[in-house]
Write a structure and sequence with these properties.
Low-confidence stretches: none
Largest sheet: none
Number of strands: 0
Number of helices: 1
Helix content: over 70%
C-alpha cells in the first residue's frame, strides 16, 4: 500500500489518540 502524506497524518493522529486514550484509561482505573 502506498500512503499519501495526508493519509499518513491521519494514521499517526489516530494512533496517538488511541495511545493517549488507553494510557488515560489505565491511570484512571488504578486510582
Amino acid at each position: 500500500m502506498i500512503f499519501s502524506s495526508d493519509q499518513m497524518g491521519w494514521v499517526l493522529f489516530t494512533g496517538v489518540m488511541v495511545i493517549v486514550g488507553v494510557l488515560f484509561y489505565l491511570v484512571k482505573k488504578d486510582e
